[in-house]
Amino acid sequence: MTLNIFFFSITFKKREVSLQEAVQQEMVEKLYEENKDRQISMQHFMY
User: Fold this and answer.
1) What is the pTM for the complete model shown?
2) Which helix (H) or strand (E) is 24 found in, with range?
């Protein structure tokens, strides 16, 4: 009889975000929200 046991260790490290990446992400979220609001207003206009 053979018993095979495997042990895995997984470590997560929090990623440091640079200032440039944070500004870029904020701009993307702002544009997404503006487009979402525009789509909602167009849907209300059509119905």
Assistant:
1) 0.55
2) helix 19-46
